[in-house]
Specification:
- It holds the Pfam family ABC_tran.
- This is Peptide/nickel transport system ATP-binding protein/oligopeptide transport system ATP-binding protein.
- GO terms for molecular function: ATP binding.
- It contains 12 helices and 11 strands.
- Strands 6-7-8-3-9-10-11 form a 7-stranded mixed sheet, with helices on both faces. A 4-stranded antiparallel sheet has the order 2-1-4-5.
- The protein starts with a strand and ends in a 7-residue tail after the last helix.
- The mean pLDDT is 91.
- Helix 6 runs parallel beside helix 7.
- It is globular.
- A hairpin with a 2-residue loop joins strand 4 and strand 5.
- The chain has one domain: Rossmann fold (3-Layer(aba) Sandwich), CATH 3.40.50.300.
- It is of the alpha/beta class.
- Bound molecules: iron/sulfur cluster.
- The site of iron/sulfur cluster (SF4) has 13 residues, from loops.
- Iron/sulfur cluster (SF4) binds next to loops.
Length: 337
C-alpha cells in the first residue's frame, strides 16, 4: 500500500531576532532552524535527534506555529499551515497535539484532571458538553489511570502519572499527529519504558502518527521508524532506524552513536570524541556547519554547503549531508584527529 503523506516540511527557517543598541534594533539573528525539509507519512514515528541547541524542539514548535516560522512551508494533508491566518489555524489545532517534557508546567495546578481534559474538548468542540466528563474518565483508563482520579489535582500524581495525563489531554481532541517533545526525558528508566509502550499501544489503537523529539538515542531506537539527525539548525542525516544505527554515514551521526553504551562487556566500541563545543547558532560556521568539529574536514568543507544525498552504498530514503561519504567509507579519507 502506498504511504500517505501527512506532514511535509519544506525549507523551514526559524530565526529569532537579537535586539541591541540604544534603539533596540535587530542587530542579528539566532538561526535556530535553517532551511530544513522532510516528510512524515501516516502512521509512522519519526524522531528528531541531536544535542541541545540543534533546533529539534524549535522545529516542533514551528510546525505547530507556537513560534511563527520565519520562512518555509508546513503542509498538513496538503494545506500549508504556515500560510494560514490565526483563525484558520484554529481548525487544525486539534489535529496536531504536543506532549511536553514536563506536563506539570503546562497544566494549571488549580484545575482537577477532569477539568483539564474537558477544557481541551470544550475549546475544540469535541462531543456535546454532557458527554465530556464521561469521555475524560474513559481517557484516564486508556492511559492506565483510574476514573475516580479525575477529581484529583495534578500535584497528587507522580511524574509518570502526570505524563499519562498529558497524553490523555492530547488524545482528548482526537488528534492525527502528536509531537512528543522530550516527552519521557524527565522520567525514571522503568517509567520511561511504560510510557513508551503506552504510546505504541495508542498508536495502533488510534492510528496516530508521532514526531518524537529527543536527545536520547536509546529512546529513539526503541520508538522510531525513521530518524532525522540535526546539527546546528540543519538536517545532517535522515534514514530508517536500522540504516541509521547499523550504517550511519555522517561523521556527526557516527560520533553521536559511538557514545551509546553497549550492554555486552565483550564487545568494544571506539568512542569518537568530538573536539570543541557546538558553535553559536548566531554566527554558524560557513560551508558545512560541522566542519569546526569534524575529523575529516577539508578546505572545501569550510566553503561549500553539503546537500543531503544518497550515495550508492545507501538504501533508498537514506540521505546524509557530507561531501566525502564515499571516501570516508572506502578508507581513502582518514580522520585527522
Ligand atoms: Fe565533515 Fe566535510 Fe563531511 Fe562536513 S562535509 S561532515 S566537515 S567531511
Amino acid at each position: 500500500m502506498e504511504k500517505q503523506e501527512l506532514l511535509k516540511v519544506e525549507g523551514l527557517k526559524q530565526y529569532f531576532p537579537i535586539k541591541g543598541g540604544f534603539l533596540g534594533r535587530t542587530v542579528n539573528h539566532v538561526k535556530a532552524v535553517d532551511d530544513i525539509s522532510f516528510t512524515i507519512y501516516e502512521g509512522e514515528t519519526v524522531s528528531i535527534v541531536g544535542e541541545s541547541g540543534c533546533g529539534k524542539s524549535t522545529t516542533g514548535r514551528a510546525i505547530l506555529r507556537l513560534e511563527e516560522p520565519t520562512e518555509g512551508k508546513v503542509e498538513f494533508r496538503g494545506v500549508d499551515l504556515a500560510g494560514l491566518s490565526k483563525r484558520d489555524m484554529r481548525k487544525y489545532r486539534k489535529d496536531l497535539q504536543i506532549i511536553f517534557q514536563d506536563p506539570y508546567a503546562s497544566i494549571n495546578p488549580r484545575q482537577t484532571v477532569a477539568s483539564v481534559l474537558t477544557e481541551a474538548m470544550d475549546i475544540q468542540k469535541v462531543l456535546p458538553a454532557n458527554e465530556r466528563r464521561g469521555r475524560a474518565e474513559e481517557l484516564l483508563e486508556t492511559v492506565g489511570l483510574l476514573p475516580y482520579q479525575a477529581d484529583r489535582f495534578p500535584h497528587e500524581f507522580s511524574g509518570g502519572q502526570r505524563q499519562r495525563i498529558g497524553i490523555a489531554r492530547a488524545l482528548s481532541v482526537n488528534p492525527q499527529l502528536i509531537i512528543c517533545d522530550e516527552a519521557v526525558s524527565a522520567l525514571d528508566v522503568s517509567i520511561q519504558a511504560q510510557v513508551l509502550n503506552l504510546l505504541e499501544e495508542l498508536q495502533d489503537e488510534f492510528k496516530l502518527t508521532y514526531l518524537f523529539i529527543s536527545h536520547d538515542l536509546g529512546v529513539v531506537r526503541h520508538i522510531s521508524d525513521r530518524i532525522i539527525v540535526m546539527y546546528l539548525g540543519k538536517i545532517v542525516e535522515i534514514a530508517d532506524k536500522y540504516s541509521l544505527f547499523e550504517n550511519p554515514k555522517h561523521p556527526y551521526t557516527k560520533a553521536l552513536l559511538s557514545a551509546i553504551p553497549i550492554p555486552d562487556p565483550d564487545k568494544k566500541k571506539e568512542r569518537i570524541v568530538l573536539r570543541g563545543d557546538v558553535p553559536s547558532p548566531i554566527d554558524p560556521p560557513s560551508g558545512c556547519r560541522f566542519h569546526t568539529r569534524c575529523p575529516y574536514a577539508t578546505e572545501k568543507c569550510q566553503v561549500d554547503v553539503p546537500e543531503l544525498r544518497t550515495a550508492s552504498s545507501m538504501k533508498e530514503g537514506h540521505e546524509a549531508a557530507c561531501h566525502y561519504i564515499e571516501e570516508i567509507e572506502s578508507g581513502e579519507k582518514q580522520p585527522n584527529y
